[in-house]
Amino acid sequence: MARIFITGSSDGLGQMAARLLVDAGHQVVLHGRSEERAAQARKAVPGAQDSVAGDLSSLAQMVAVAEQVNRLGRFDAVIHNAAVGYQEPRRIATAEGLAHVFAINTLAPYVLTALIDKPARLVYLSSGLHRSGDASLDDLAWERRPWRGTVAYSDSKLHDALLAFAMARRWPQVLSNALEPGWVATKMGGPGAPDDLQAAPKTQVWLAVSDDPAATVSGEYFYHQKPCETHPAVRDVDVQERLIDACERFSGIRLPD
């Protein structure tokens, strides 16, 4: 039995993964952006052990989520699932002045990785759109560029893959991997999405708990439990480090060794 924390698990793929894990006998802690959403998550996944609440567009609440998680004890795996999608209009995260897609999809996984006690495994949800992300990392906060929701989302999913590979290198004692679940008919993906919805949550579950030798690797990228090619920059140590440096500047939080 493993203990797993899943961000953004009040609906969508996070909730589906939570159900699979609970059904398999694991202890799962859920997350919602508010107390109301966390309560909805517990109702939807009644076998879950607990839930935490916090809006991941806010740096202060990212920190609060990490503190809540750490009070519950060490976890075997953390699944960084929370995200907003490619159809988002430009919105500024309240206190920090950052575009909310960057705050939720990029900065929050970084901050939670830095502050949550090291688990045995880290799982980051990326997307096939990461392959069109901008590896220059220019204007991460969208202060100069005209807003394009699909571009912001693609960039952020490239960042998630970069973070997964950076952590695999920096923390060799932790299994850290990224995956794309496919374009599926969730609230984010839309009703016309063509991929297999039932298959979509299985890879993150497999990476979080499986003893399969194919799952107990680090610094890999998967699609439906199979290794998959990534944007070339994902394996570039210089790009990984530049993203980490930028996230540290934006958050004021340093990754521990």
Summarize the structure.
With 257 residues, this protein is α/β, with parallel strands linked by helices. 37% of the residues lie in helices and 13% in strands. It is globular, with a radius of gyration of 16 Å.
Plain-language structure description:
Helix content is 37%, strand content 13%. The chain has 257 residues and is an alpha/beta fold. The protein has an eight-stranded mixed β-sheet, with helices on both faces. It is globular and about 45 Å long.
List the helices and strands and how they pair.
Elements: E1 3-6, H1 12-23, E2 27-32, H2 35-44, E3 50-53, H3 59-71, E4 77-80, H4 100-115, E5 121-125, H5 149-170, E6 175-180, H6 202-209, E7 221-223, E8 226-227, H7 237-251
Parallel strand pairs: 1-2, 1-4, 2-3, 4-5, 5-6, 6-7
Antiparallel strand pairs: 7-8
Helix pairs in contact: 3-4, 4-5, 4-7, 5-7
Give short descriptive properties of this protein.
single chain, 257 residues, alpha/beta, 8-stranded mixed sheet, 8 strands, globular
Give the low-pLDDT segments.
Answer: none
Order of helices and strands: EHEHEHEHEHEHEEH
| Mean pLDDT across all amino acids | 92
> Per the principal axes of the C-alpha atoms, what is the gross shape?
globular
Using DSSP, what is the number of strands?
A: 8
Radius of gyration: 16 Å
How many helices? The count is 7
Structural class by secondary-structure content:
alpha/beta
Q: Strand order within the widest sheet?
A: 3-2-1-4-5-6-7-8
Distance between the termini: 28 Å
Biggest sheet features = 8 strands, mixed
How big a fraction of the residues is strand? Answer: 5-15%
| Helix fraction by DSSP (H/I, runs of at least 4) | 25-40%
